[in-house]
Write a structure and sequence with these properties.
The chain is an alpha/beta fold and 434 residues long. The protein has 17 helices and 13 strands. Helix 1 (3-11) packs parallel to helix 3. It starts with a helix and ends with a strand.
C-alpha cells in the first residue's frame, strides 16, 4: 500500500478498507509514515468524513496498537462513564464511588484539563498524595480491592491515540467526529469494560456547541461501541452554564464531597445520580434506569458512596484527612467577592469565558507544561434564572496571584448577562439515547 495514494483516496471522498486503515495506523505508530503525511491524511478525514465501518475499523486499529486490560478474573460487570468535558464537570469523582459501592467494577481512565475545560486527573491530584500514574498491575490491585480505580492513560494503552491526538491538536483536526469517536472508544475499550455511559455536553461551554453535532457524536460513539458488542447509553446534557457551583480543582473535590455526603443536592447531584443510575443498570444491578437512579440516591443517603470514596483515595495514596476535614485544606492567598451592580435575573452565562477565567486564576493550563494552582477557582452563587439584588454576591474568586484576580474578575463580569424578566432555564438533560 502507498501512503500518497491513500491520502488521495480520502481526499477524493472514497472509503478505506479495514486493511488500509490497519496499515495506516501500524505504519504511523512505527514511525514509517512521517507526521507531515499523516497530518494531510487527518485533514482529509476531517473534510471528507468516515462511514460507520471505517470508524469502527479505525477504533479497532487504535485499540490494538497497545494492551487491552484483561479483567476476566474479576467476577462481575465492568462499567465506565465518559464525558466530553465542560466547566465544573466533576461527575466522575461522584459516580465512581457510587457505582463501585453496588458491586460493579469501575476501571476509569481519565484525562487532564486543557484550555477552558477541567480534567479529572488534575482534580484528583489536588488531593495531596493521590496517585493517578499507577501502573496496570497497581491499578488491578486497587480495582480488586475496592471496585474502582481512577488513573490516566498509560504508555501501554492505545499508544496510537496519544500520537494521533498530539498531531490533531496542532493541525486543526480535533473536531472530526470519526477521529473523536476512535480516540474515545479505543481508550475505553482497552479498559476491558462490558458497558459504557456517555455524557455528551452541548452548549456554549462544550466542544460540541450545537445540539445536532452532539447527537451526531453520540450516535457515532454508540455505533462504534455496539460494533464491539458493548452495551452503551448516551446522555446529551447542558453546558450553557457551569455544572454545580464550584469551578477549580480542589474546589470541585470539595463540592463532590458535599454531594457524596448528601449535603448538596443541586444540578451536579441530579446529573451524577442519573449517570450513576445508568451505569448501575448496565451493570445488571437494576432493572431500569429509574431503579438504578434510586439505588444511586440510596448509596449517598446511607453513607456507602462517601465511604467508598475515602477507600479509593486511601488506596491511591491520597491524604484522607482532607477528605474527612475538607475545610482544613490550604487556602488561596487572595480572594475577591464579585457583586452585582443592579437588581435583575441572571439571563445568560458565557461558560467558555467562565472556564477561561478559572484558567486565568491558575486552575487550568494553556500548555501541557503549565503548573496548576490547585486552590484557585470560582464559587458561583447565582445561576441562570436566579434573581440577584444590587450588591448581592454573584461569585467568589480565589488565586495566589492578585494580578490574576483582577483579570479574572473582569472576565467573569463580561461573561454574565442580566435581564429584568425571568429567563427560561436550560434543560439539564436534553436527550437519553439507549
Amino acid at each position: 500500500m502507498n501512503i500518497v495514494e491513500l491520502i488521495k483516496k480520502k481526499r477524493d471522498g472514497k472509503s478505506f478498507t479495514a486493511d488500509e486503515i490497519s496499515f495506516l495506523i501500524d505504519q504511523f505508530t512505527k514511525g514509517i509514515i512521517p507526521d507531515y503525511q499523516f497530518s494531510a491524511l487527518l485533514m482529509s478525514i476531517l473534510l471528507k468524513g468516515m462511514n460507520d465501518s471505517e470508524t469502527s475499523a479505525l477504533t479497532n486499529s487504535m485499540l490494538n496498537s497497545g494492551k487491552i486490560i484483561d479483567l476476566s478474573s474479576l467476577k462481575g460487570k465492568k462499567v465506565d462513564k465518559h464525558s466530553t468535558g465542560g466547566v465544573g464537570d466533576k461527575t466522575s469523582l461522584i459516580i465512581a464511588p457510587i457505582v463501585a459501592s453496588t458491586g460493579i467494577y469501575v476501571p476509569m481512565i481519565s484525562g487532564r484539563g486543557l484550555g477552558h475545560t477541567g480534567g479529572t486527573l488534575d482534580k484528583l491530584e489536588s488531593i495531596p498524595g493521590f496517585r493517578t500514574d499507577l501502573s496496570l498491575s497497581e491499578s488491578m490491585k486497587v480495582l480488586k480491592k475496592c471496585g474502582a480505580v481512577l488513573i490516566g492513560q498509560t504508555k501501554e494503552i492505545a499508544p496510537a491515540d496519544k500520537m494521533i491526538y498530539a498531531l490533531r491538536d496542532v493541525t486543526a483536526t480535533v473536531e472530526s467526529i470519526p477521529l473523536i469517536t476512535a480516540s474515545i472508544m479505543s481508550k475505553k475499550l482497552a479498559e476491558g469494560i462490558d458497558g459504557l455511559v456517555l455524557d455528551i455536553k452541548t452548549g456554549n461551554g462544550a466542544f460540541m456547541k450545537n445540539h445536532s453535532d452532539s447527537i451526531e457524536l453520540a450516535n457515532s460513539l454508540i455505533n462504534a461501541a455496539k460494533s464491539f458488542d458493548k452495551k452503551v447509553i448516551a446522555f446529551i446534557t447542558d453546558m450553557n452554564q457551569p455544572l454545580g457551583n464550584y469551578v477549580g480543582n480542589w474546589l470541585e473535590v470539595y463540592e463532590s464531597i458535599q454531594v457524596l455526603k448528601g449535603i448538596v443536592k443541586n444540578d451536579l447531584y441530579t446529573l451524577s445520580v442519573k449517570l450513576a443510575g445508568a451505569m448501575i443498570f448496565l451493570g445488571k444491578k437494576a432493572k431500569s434506569l429509574q431503579a438504578g437512579e434510586q439505588i444511586a440516591k440510596d448509596k449517598i443517603e446511607n453513607g456507602e458512596a462517601f465511604r467508598k470514596f475515602i477507600e479509593i483515595v486511601e488506596l491511591q495514596g491520597g491524604n484522607i484527612n482532607y477528605i474527612n476535614n475538607p475545610d482544613k485544606y490550604p487556602k488561596a492567598k487572595y480572594s475577591r467577592r464579585v457583586l452585582s451592580i443592579k437588581s435583575s435575573f441572571v439571563k445568560e452565562i458565557n461558560t467558555y469565558q467562565f472556564g477561561m477565567a478559572s484558567l486565568e486564576l491558575g486552575a487550568g493550563r494553556r500548555t501541557k507544561e503549565n503548573k496548576i494552582d490547585f486552590k484557585a477557582g470560582i464559587i458561583i452563587n447565582k445561576k441562570i434564572g436566579d434573581y440577584i439584588k444590587k450588591d448581592e454576591l454573584i461569585c467568589e474568586i480565589f488565586s495566589d496571584s492578585k494580578t490574576k484576580i483582577n483579570t479574572a474578575e473582569q472576565m467573569i463580569i463580561n461573561s454574565i448577562k442580566f435581564s429584568r424578566t425571568k429567563p427560561s432555564i436550560p434543560k439539564l438533560i436534553k436527550k437519553v439515547i439507549l
